[in-house]
Amino acid sequence: MEVITTFLNGLSLGGVYALIALGYTMVYGIAKMLNFAHGDVIMVGGYTVMVFFNLTGQPLVAALIAVVFCSLVGVVIEKLAYKPLRGASPLAVLITAIGVSYLLESLAQIIFGSSHKIVMLADLGKLILGSLVIDLNTVVTLLSAIAIMAALTLFVNKTKTGKAMLAVSEDRHAAELMGVSVNKIIMITFAIGSALAAVAGTFYILKTPDVSTTMGAMPGIKAFTAAVIGGIGSIPGAMLGGILLGVIETVCNAIPALSNFSIAIEFGLLIIILLVKPTGLLGKKKREKV
Amino acid sequence: MNLKNYISLIKKGFKIKNFINYFVVIAVTLIFGLISGIGGLNRSTLALLEQIGYSVIAAVSLSLVVGFLGELSLGHAAFMSLGAFTGSLFQNAVFPSLSSSAPLLSLILAMIIGGIIAGLFGFIIGLPALRLKGDYLAIVTLAFGEIIKIIFQNMDLFGGVMGFQNKYRYDINSLFIVIFVVLLLALAVIQNLIRSKHGRAVMAVRDNEIAAKSMGVNVSYYKIAVFVISAVIAGVAGVLFANTQSTIKSSKFDYNYSINLLVMVVLGGMGNVNGTLLASTVITFIDVKLATILTGDLAVIKNIVYALILIVMVIYNNAPSLKKFRERFNLTNAFNALKKFILTLFNKKKKTKNSAEEVEFGADWSKIPTKIEMDAILSTDLKPDETYDPDVPDKGAKR
After folding, report:
1. What's the CATH code of the domain at A196?
2. Are A189 and A165 in contact (CB under 8 A)?
3. Residue in A115, A137, A118, A116 with CA at minimum distance from that of residue A126
4. Is residue B314 part of a domain?
5. Using the beta-carbon criterion (under 8 Å), do A267 and B143 form an inter-chain contact?
6. Within a domain: residue A283?
7. Whole-number Å distance between alpha carbons of B178 and B173
8. pLDDT for B387
9. CATH at B245
10. Please, which pLDDT band fits residue B390 given cuts at 50, 70 and 90?
11. Which domain holds residue A159?
12. Does residue A284 lie in a domain region?
């Protein structure tokens, strides 16, 4: 029975990672850049949830405000820091993203201080089925993550904007010639990615009620690992990678001998997968033209 | 005879700007060495000098990978931690007696061992660099850094989370001299590498890998070589760092420390060793000085300023839309213009003569013959009743 509980916990953690990984992968697919500041958007979301939860006492309202606020933050970051560098070398964009990440962390520390804050959003209780004990928070997280991912898949494949996003990620110049406004699409991508980060931040607080300036760093890096494992730029890949990573982490943590090394195992997996299949599990191989 | 040739060769090829960093480092070492010999340096100044020294060594080694090979490494601190832990393990556990009787020898051996171990891992990290590029490689180096950190944290041999107790350290009063000598060596290695055939090959790989490959550059060899050299130097920096600490904790060498090193390289100007030297010195100095002034949460102001400088710098240096602006207001251009102006002040007579000659020489080409004129000069028009005799050179005919 414990195995099932562990597995469910892993799935729900994987769902959170998948939500974050989607932000990474969409931005990479469409803007062709690594948004290293994405992890810190989670942190911004976490603090926003904290502030508005303390104000209103309503977790849902706080989460909604966080989603809107994070979308705005994402768009502003894109406009100020990344847009001037469109067409510059990837290294320059990556370093700017690192600078933005540093800036967000430092700003949060100035505003909220460096101490960790405890936010008890909600405890939905436990579901007991015979000898099986399931935390309802886990179930809600998992179901919401699945619902959001399904909605996102529908959005990308069925709506006009979503199809435009796919077109831009396929070939930016051709999409531009077909009348797609690339700047607008990139902006929308950043908004959606940051909104997903805010949702992930909320779920993260639900799981571990601890808000700090570096709370986004580790989930961010892990989700990024997940995105790369699944094949960066591929939306199903990010979901697969996220869930895979979440399950592996939870299983490692459940085994006492491995619990100290869970992060090392995850990153080791990343290195091995990249060496065997440099484009990730579901990534497409691109031939380089001279 | 031979020596004379050599000296004249040195005189010819000697440009002060190629060696200026050596002189600066030697001068700093001598000045502070003398002051310390009199006993005029207190502990905090010594610590500052040491910190500047090993930070500069580490930053310069990172600049080899980032600036000259053009690959982003986000796990450079891991090489330092490898050097720090293996080096101090050697100094403390293997030969404690040597460390107390001949500390310099022990330190040098530790640096060699630390360098070799770090270089070994540099080779291991260089292998993925052959298959992966850019963003992917960056995340692999980041993962590598985290893995090394976690492994050290969980090894009882290295003290686990509590850190490694570093009892046998080099004398704190003269450590900075050793550090600066090592810095000098590291600079010599890196600059000679960059200015050699191999360095040009590395830069060719950075600028266009496919073009370099088709010109016969062994890309795999150079990529791995650069990673190994950079790792060795970082490992040595790690050993030196370990000698400044009484407890070595692997949590010091985290992602943030790697980023700090990267900031130094980027602010100094990628692919510019002197810039890295200057930036790492200034940043370390400000870091240490500000740490005493800004305490607690205020210390973050420094990070905000760094982050802003980093963003603005990179955008200013790389934004395609700012290209025209950059060409107009360029520091190098301004410097060259100033140099030209000063030179004209000194060589007024010579300059005018030169320019007059230029005008004279240019006069010959002021009237370039048009195509019709050229045809008239070169053509041999034959009339119907004429025979062509190439021996008669009247029309400039040639065959």
Report:
1. 1.10.3470
2. yes
3. A137
4. no
5. yes
6. no
7. 10
8. 66
9. 1.10.3470
10. low
11. 2-121+130-276
12. no
Residue B343 in any domain: the answer is no
Name the pLDDT band for A63 (thresholds 50, 70, 90). Answer: very high
Answer whether B321 sits within 8 Å of A290, measured CB to CB: no
Cβ under 8 Å to B: A residues 204-223: 217, 221
> What residues make up the domain containing B235?
20-293
pLDDT value at A162 more than 70? yes
Cα distances (angstroms) measured from residue B61 to each of A42, A114, A198, B20, B68: 33, 32, 38, 19, 10
Q: Is the pLDDT of residue B351 over 50?
A: no
Burial class (CB in 10 A: 0-12, 13-18, 19+), A126: exposed
Rounded to whole angstroms, the Cα distance separating B195 from B181 reads 21
More confident of the two residues B357 and A208: A208
Q: For the whole model, what pTM was predicted?
A: 0.80
Q: Indicate the burial class of B274 (C-beta count within 10 angstroms; 0-12, 13-18, 19 or more).
A: middle
Q: Is B365 domain-assigned? A: no
Taking only residues 147 to 186 of chain A, the set having a beta carbon closer than 8 angstroms to any beta carbon of chain B reads none
Q: Which residues of chain A have a CB within 8 Å of the CB of B121?
A: none
Is residue B43 over pLDDT 90?
A: no
Mean pLDDT of A171-199: 92
pLDDT confidence of residue B362: 45
In sequence order, what are the residues at sequence separation of 6 or more whose Cβ sits closer than 8 angstroms to the Cβ of residue B143? A225, A267, A268, A270, A271, B75
- Please tell me which of the candidates A102, A103, A263 has its beta carbon nearest to residue B150: A263
- Which chain A residues touch B323 with a CB distance below 8 Å? none
pLDDT in tens, B272-300: 888 899 989 988 888 888 777 777 667 77
**CA distance to A27, A127, A213, per residue, from A68 (Å):** 18, 32, 20
Confidence of residue B361 (pLDDT cuts 50, 70, 90): very low
Nearest CB among B132, B135, B151 relative to A264 is that of: B151
Comparing CA positions, the residue from A198, A230, A233, A229 lying closest to residue A216 is A198
**Contacts of residue B52, Cβ cutoff 8 Å, sequence gap at least 6:** B280, B281, B284, B285
Is A257 part of a structural domain of the chain?
yes
- Which amino acid is located at A210 in the chain? D
Pick the more confident residue, B181 or B5.
Answer: B181
In 10 A of CB B42, how many CB atoms?
A: 9
Note the pLDDT tens digit of each residue in B374-387.
776 666 666 666 66
Structural domain count, chain A: 1
Percent of chain B clearing pLDDT 90 (strictly above) = 25
In a domain, A286, yes or no: no
What is residue A127's three-state secondary structure? strand
- Residue-wise pLDDT for A211-222, tens only, equals 888 888 888 888
- Specify which of B76-90, B95-109, B335-349 reaches the highest per-range mean pLDDT: B76-90
